[in-house]
Design a protein that fits this description.
This protein is of the alpha/beta class and about 325 residues long. The chain has 8 helices and 13 strands. It has helices at about 25-45, 55-65, 85-95, 115-135, 155-160, 205-220, 225-245, 290-295, and strands at about 5, 20-25, 45-50, 70, 105, 140-145, 165-170, 170-175, 195-200, 250-255, 260-265, 300-305, 310-315. The strands form 2 sheets. Strands 1-8-7-2-6-5-3-4 form an 8-stranded mixed beta sheet, sandwiched between helices. α1 (about 25-45) packs across α2 (about 55-65) and α7 runs antiparallel to α8 (about 290-295). The protein is elongated, with a radius of gyration of 21 Å.
Length: about 325
């Protein structure tokens, strides 16, 4: 038996974070679903944060007449790396939820503008991680509109697996396809493109790593002003690899589709999937390296298991490559 619930039941104290996927077709359905969600929030004296593509922002602004409880944010300011988005949402929701006020978010990703298959995969992973990041946020909920007009059922199924609830006809339904366990089903990492460079490293090799990466990145067309960011990033990853990954690792670099990639492999394990995705506290002693890398790189892919160790890929745009 399928259980359906009104989009806005009275929220009991301690109710779990609600994360709803809203498949729609066309502007009319987009507006009807999102406006109902917003109006119900306003009737309950909840704040609303909206992060949708520019054309959808214009549609909603035209219907809301500068409602003060609705805040529109530009999701592109967080940059292309989905690893930055949880921190951005946390900041937006905390700002609007001062004093314990409940907050609803509406977040639509521009899926069709994904820069690569790797970027698309990390966008989906971000959606799944939202449930873990905000599991105890009993006064927050987020609606994720998704344009299903192209009838790509595989894409819709992949995304639905990241959302505990499905929103339809003003109601949300528990999603039987949701990946509710602790393990996420990643897309397999494709192998490096030929030609690629490979270097084994250990203690004392940080300068060699930086030099090698700088040389390869320059040849791949990474802009000169991006090279210091890349140098900091590879230093952070290699240092963590040496300290926590058995004292040694393997670096690979290559260029692919106007992107420069650095891949680090070691035998270590990162047990917390949220590492690097939440802004470190000022008093925090460690754990800042991956946060910094997410801020500096255009995309970061992390695969880590106790039996296979850790692989981290850093992506940097190389628009000068021809």
């Amino acid at each position: 038996m399928t259980t359906t619930m009104p989009s806005t039941p009275a929220r009991p104290h301690g109710a779990p974070f609600r994360h709803e996927l809203y498949p729609y077709r066309g502007e009319d359905q987009f507006l009807s679903g999102t406006l109902d969600y917003i109006h119900e929030a306003l009737e309950a004296d909840e704040a609303v944060v909206v992060a949708v593509p520019e054309n959808k922002t214009s549609l909603l602004r035209g219907e809301l007449a500068d409602e003060p409880s609705v805040t529109f944010v530009d999701a592109t300011t967080a940059g292309p790396n989905p690893g930055r988005h949880i921190a951005a949402w946390s900041a937006w929701m905390n700002q609007r939820g001062e004093g314990g006020r409940p907050v609803r978010g509406i977040g639509e990703t521009a899926w069709r503008q994904a820069r690569s298959a790797a970027h698309l995969s990390e966008l989906r992973y971000h959606e799944w991680l939202m449930n873990r990041a905000f599991a105890r946020s009993s006064t927050w909920s987020i609606l994720c509109p998704y344009d299903a007009a192209d009838e790509d059922q595989n894409a819709l199924l992949s995304l639905s697996r990241c959302h505990p609830q499905i929103h339809r006809d003003g109601q949300y339904t528990p999603n039987e396809n949701y990946l509710s366990g602790d393990e996420y089903s990643f897309d397999a990492l494709a192998g490096p493109c030929d030609p690629f460079q490979e270097l084994s490293y250990t203690h004392g090799d940080l300068a060699t790593i930086r030099s090698k990466v700088s040389q390869c990145a320059t040849q791949a067309g990474v802009p000169e002003e991006q090279l210091p960011k890349l140098a900091v990033s590879v230093t952070e990853i290699a240092t963590n690899s040496i300290r926590h990954g058995g004292g040694h690792g393997t670096l690979r670099t290559w260029a692919q589709d106007a992107t420069f990639l650095c891949e680090f492999r070691d035998s270590g394990y990162i047990p917390d999937a949220m590492t690097g995705r939440l802004r470190p506290e000022e008093s925090q002693a460690g754990g800042r390296g991956l946060w910094l890398v997410h801020q500096l790189c255009d995309l970061v892919e992390i695969r880590s298991t106790p039996d296979r160790g850790t692989t981290i890929r850093l992506h940097m745009d190389a628009p000068q490559r021809y």
